[in-house]
Specification:
With about 425 residues, this protein is mostly helical. The protein is built from 18 helices and no strands. It has one domain. The chain is globular. The protein starts with a helix and ends with a helix.
Length: about 425
């Protein structure tokens, strides 16, 4: 842990993380500060509908850029990256239109899935939410590519402030789950507008000189492994993340799903303090290192071991006292959410530590193998949830789901670590010869 701190303190890497971390801390702090208010303005059932809606939205949003947003970081030249960025934006428009068609043709099925048949108007927020998410992903990836970390940090703060304000207002107006959903989509749109300054003002000349249809098609073809494997893998990950809410609602009721969703949301606040900043800066730094022929293994080991060190003590505290903390902060009706949160800790803690593995896997172009791994994750998670739904209590199902998540994420870290070790040995052998 001390070695990690010494390594980061004197590097530009640390300075970039500090910039993004400032925005993350403010953004997550706002979310955490308003949580006791929000928990008293909305019911577990409201959060259950929000959780179900987000599960569908995140699944659709996984396809929205066809993961070309992730590929923006990889080209060596900014001119090439600009054409990948354009491919990402084009994908957003195409997929959003498809999402609009899905919302129209599958409205009855989606309303049943959301457990909110009385709120048919919410369906039309799905394609809008997909579009906003895609624009946000693309703009943010471009800003990270250009090392405009101050822009991404301010965008996080704008988003968090907008969500907090809009959710409190909608809660006071008794808007229920619809207020929660519209607040998040509106805030994402405001955050995207904030990021657009980098695209349309600062980098306008670069983009104008770089873009042409032939190069867009060429780069889209060059990075076709991202839509083929990475987009599908991300969608499967989103589906496996959203399955607990959907299946808990199906087997145990929307209130149980809401308690789970609220507990997971609160656990995400502290880990996002670190991960939002780390993912942006680490992806940029690791991609740059790899393109220059540098070594990824030392960076992987230092960051991963540091994350395990950071996660250990807070995880232990929350595992012991989460139910009491939730009851004291949010009210007695959220005690169940605290119990679920306690047993989600093992999974969330190791998920927190796998960010370097996930990013390094993309840089090493392991999209196909990551796709296979994610397919295994999806099938095993779905199996656990369905078996639990038929034969176990809600709490037992959550515990089993968390244990499975812990084991799978540990496997991912060890697998990517072994790939980096093998790559390092191969490079050393080539240098000796």
């Amino acid at each position: 842990m001390l070695r990690l701190i010494r390594y980061l303190r004197n590097s530009q890497f640390f300075k970039n993380i500090s910039i993004v971390m400032t925005g993350t801390i403010v953004a997550q702090g706002i979310g955490f500060a308003i949580a006791p208010v929000i928990s008293r303005l909305f019911t577990p059932s409201d959060f259950g509908v929000l959780g179900s809606f987000n599960s569908v939205l995140i699944f659709l949003a996984a396809f929205v850029t066809l993961q070309y947003a992730q590929a923006i970081m990889l080209p060596k030249r900014d001119q090439d990256a600009a054409n990948v960025f354009a491919a990402s934006i084009l994908s957003v428009f195409i997929v959003s239109l498809i999402a609009l068609l899905v919302a129209y043709l599958c409205s009855d099925w989606l309303l049943e899935l959301l457990k909110s048949p009385q709120s048919a108007w919410l369906l039309w927020f799905l394609p809008l939410g997909v579009f906003v998410a895609g624009i946000n992903q693309s703009f943010q990836a471009w800003c990270v590519r250009r090392k405009a970390f101050a822009k991404t940090a301010s965008s996080q703060m704008v988003r968090a402030g907008s969500i907090g304000t809009l959710q409190i207002v909608s809660g006071l107006l008794h808007q229920g789950s619809g207020g929660l959903i519209t607040s998040i989509i509106t805030a994402n749109g405001i955050a995207s507008v904030n990021l657009s300054r980098q695209v349309f003002v600062t980098d306008r000349k670069l983009l104008k000189e770089s873009l042409n249809w032939r190069q867009i098609g060429k780069k889209a073809k060059e990075y076709r492994d991202f839509p083929i494997y990475s987009a599908t893998q991300t969608a499967m990950n989103a589906l496996s993340q959203g399955l607990p809410v959907l299946l808990l609602a199906h087997f145990y009721g929307i209130a149980v799903a809401g308690a789970y969703a609220f507990g997971l949301r609160l656990l995400s606040v502290p880990i996002n303090f670190v991960l939002i900043a780390l993912r942006q800066v680490l992806f940029q730094k690791a991609s740059e290192t790899y393109n220059k022929g540098g070594r990824l293994l030392p960076l992987f080991i230092k960051i991963t071991s540091g994350l395990f060190g950071i996660a250990s003590i807070p995880s232990l505290i929350l595992f012991i006292w989460a139910p009491q903390i939730f009851t004291w902060m949010f009210g007695a009706e959220w005690h169940t959410a605290g119990i679920y949160a306690r047993w989600l800790i093992p999974w969330i803690a190791v998920l927190f530590c796998n960010a370097p593995a996930s990013l390094c896997g993309r840089i090493l172009r392991q999209q196909r193998n990551l796709f296979i791994f994610e397919l295994i994750v999806l099938v095993s998670r779905a199996s656990v949830l369905v078996i639990g739904g038929f034969y176990l209590s809600a709490l037992q199902t959550v515990i089993l789901f968390s244990v499975l998540g812990f084991l799978l994420n540990m496997l991912l870290i060890l697998w990517i670590g072994s790939l980096l070790v093998t790559s390092e040995k191969s490079i050393c052998t080539q240098l000796k010869s």
